[in-house]
Design goal:
This protein has 6 helices and 10 strands. It has 230 residues and is of the alpha+beta class.
């Protein structure tokens, strides 16, 4: 619906993360000595009940203000120094992250199957699997979009999108979830595809080249060939 009324929306480009830049997650000291706690939503999402539980704990601990942070997080202002460790634990208990520069910062995942009627796969489960099996992919340079369907609710244009469908998965390079995929993977073959992706990054990335630059150089054709090799 939005594209029908605002066709220019597809020309909007996200700002690419800078490899090695500092994360807002964690404790930041203000000039007046106050501590600000940065918290991130894991994979850019959270359940309403978890957010309510965490924010209730933060309010009880003295947080007087909440401000939005870049890339789906927020800052808590006004916490007493002694209360911060307990609030960090409460964040983790409610599915949030308090650790800077985790691979999960590079993943945007929609609600996925089980939480959205349109989702064809469990996005959070695949996110965890990718972090475990393809660690070299997450060097701080790229944004990975895990979309349960072609609507692409969690992110716009990503370096790599894994899009669910009735046939399995589509892999889109530097595009929207609704774009034609570089490769299609049957549902039961996603583990094999992840192994191929890991090998591709390991073998093809040049000296000093980031994961995002490597994927951009290889493009849709290079990715498709790597995933289809026997």
């Amino acid at each position: 619906m939005l594209r029908a009324h605002f066709p220019q929306i597809d020309s909007i480009r996200s700002i690419r993360p800078v490899p090695g830049k500092s994360s807002f997650v964690g404790i930041t000291r203000l000039r007046n000595g106050d501590a600000v706690l940065g918290v991130r939503l894991n994979f850019g999402q959270a359940k309403a009940a978890d957010l309510i539980s965490f924010l209730t704990s933060a309010e009880s601990a003295g947080a007087r203000e909440i401000r939005l942070a870049p890339d789906r997080g927020f800052f808590l202002i006004g916490l007493a120094e002694a209360a911060i460790p307990d609030i960090q634990n409460a964040a983790v208990d409610n599915g949030l992250s308090v650790t800077a520069n985790e691979p999960a910062e590079q993943i945007a995942a929609c609600a996925g199957a089980g939480a959205c009627a349109s989702g064809f796969y469990d996005t959070r489960a695949l996110a965890g699997q990718l972090i475990d099996q393809v660690p070299d992919l997450f060097d701080g340079s790229l944004k990975l979009h895990l979309s349960g369907c072609a609507k692409g609710c969690a992110h716009r244009r990503a370096d790599l999108a894994i899009v669910g469908s009735a046939e399995g998965y589509g892999l889109v390079v530097n595009g929207l979830a609704s774009d034609g995929p570089a490769a299609r993977i049957a549902g039961g073959q996603i583990d094999f595809a992840i192994e191929r992706l890991a090998r591709l990054i390991e073998d093809k990335r040049g000296a000093g080249e980031s994961s995002a630059d490597c994927l951009r150089r290889l493009g849709p054709i290079g990715l498709a060939k790597a995933l289809q090799q026997e």
